[in-house]
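Whiteboard transcription, Tuesday session. T.W. wrote the C-alpha cells on the left side:
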C-alpha cells in the first residue's frame, strides 16, 4: 500500500476522544466515527460533536470500501432514539448527524427508527438541527416518505463513487437507485436540503468525476462532499492514488461552477465532517 502523504496525517487529543467515547458507551450508542475509522474522529470529538450511528453497528451489506462490520444485526433498540437525544443534549450539539448501518433485513430499512430519533432530538433539544445520512432504503418510496415526514433539515445519501466503479465498490447498491433517492426526496419536499458525497482515489478519471457531478446536480442536490478514499485493510478495494490538495481545490471549483450551493472538497472531507457549516452556509444562500 502506498505511503500516506503528510496532508492525510492527523493528530488528536486522546482525552477528548475518551470523554465522548465514555458517554457513548454509557448510553449504549455507536458512532460512525469509531466504526468507520474516520480520520477526523479526534477533531470532531474535541469539539463535542459526533455522527450517531443508529440501528446497531452491524451492516447487512459488504461494500468493498467500508470498514463497518458485516453480519446479522440485532433488532432495533427501542431506547435508542431517546438515548441519542440525551447524548446530543449532554454534548450541547447545535447540529446532529444521524447515520446507520444498512439494514436490508428490516421491512422499512430502518426508516421509522430514523424518524423516531429525529423527533426525540427535537423534543430534548429545541433549536438543534438534524441531518439524516440514510442508506438507499432499497429505493422504497414509502420508507423514504417516513424519513421525509420527520423533516430533517438535511437529507443525505451518498453516491460514493463514479458510475463505472459502482458494481466493484458497492455491489448491492446501484448508481441509478442512489440518484433516484436524492431526486425523490428533493421532489417530495423541496424545503429539505439534499446532500451527497463521493470518494476519489479509486481509479476514476476526471471526465467520470465531471459526469458524476452533472448527474448528482440533475437530482436537485444542494450540498456535495468530496474526500479521499482510505483503504481500511489489504482486503478492501485497492487504493489507486492519493489525490493532492490541489486536485481537491480543482474539484471544488468544478462543482461550484456547475451550480452546487455548497461544496466541501478536501483530502479529509467526509459526508458529515463540519456538517453544521454546510447547513449554515447553504441556508444563507436561500
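and on the right, the sequence the group agreed on:
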Amino acid at each position: 500500500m502506498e505511503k500516506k502523504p503528510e496532508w492525510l496525517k492527523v493528530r488528536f487529543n486522546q482525552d477528548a476522544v475518551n470523554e465522548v467515547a465514555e458517554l457513548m458507551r454509557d448510553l449504549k450508542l455507536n458512532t460512525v466515527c469509531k466504526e468507520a475509522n474516520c480520520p477526523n474522529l479526534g477533531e470532531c470529538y474535541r469539539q463535542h460533536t459526533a455522527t450517531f450511528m443508529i440501528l446497531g453497528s452491524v451492516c447487512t451489506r459488504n461494500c468493498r470500501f467500508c470498514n463497518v462490520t458485516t453480519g446479522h444485526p440485532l433488532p432495533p433498540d427501542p431506547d435508542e432514539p431517546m438515548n441519542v437525544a440525551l447524548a446530543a443534549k449532554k454534548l450541547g450539539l447545535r447540529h446532529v448527524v444521524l447515520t446507520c448501518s444498512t439494514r436490508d433485513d428490516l421491512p422499512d430499512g430502518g426508516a421509522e427508527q430514523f424518524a423516531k430519533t429525529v423527533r426525540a432530538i427535537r423534543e430534548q433539544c429545541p433549536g438543534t438541527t438534524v441531518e439524516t445520512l440514510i442508506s438507499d432504503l432499497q429505493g422504497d418510496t414509502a420508507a423514504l416518505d417516513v424519513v421525509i415526514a420527520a423533516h430533517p433539515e438535511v437529507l443525505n445519501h451518498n453516491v460514493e463513487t463514479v458510475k463505472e466503479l459502482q458494481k466493484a465498490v458497492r455491489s448491492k447498491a446501484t448508481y441509478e437507485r442512489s440518484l433516484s433517492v436524492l431526486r425523490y426526496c428533493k421532489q417530495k419536499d423541496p424545503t429539505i436540503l439534499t446532500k451527497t458525497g463521493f470518494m476519489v482515489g479509486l481509479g476514476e478519471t476526471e471526465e467520470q468525476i465531471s459526469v458524476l457531478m452533472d448527474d448528482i446536480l440533475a437530482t436537485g442536490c444542494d450540498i456535495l462532499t468530496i474526500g479521499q478514499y482510505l483503504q481500511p485493510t489489504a482486503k478492501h478495494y485497492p487504493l489507486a492514488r492519493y489525490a493532492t490538495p490541489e486536485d481537491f481545490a480543482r474539484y471544488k471549483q468544478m462543482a461550484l461552477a456547475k451550480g452546487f450551493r455548497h461544496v466541501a472538497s478536501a483530502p479529509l472531507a467526509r459526508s458529515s465532517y463540519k456538517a453544521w457549516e454546510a447547513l449554515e452556509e447553504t441556508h444563507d444562500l436561500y
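Someone added at the bottom: The beta strands are 51-54, 58-59, 69-70, 95-100, 129-133, 154-156, 193-200, 223-228, 262-265.
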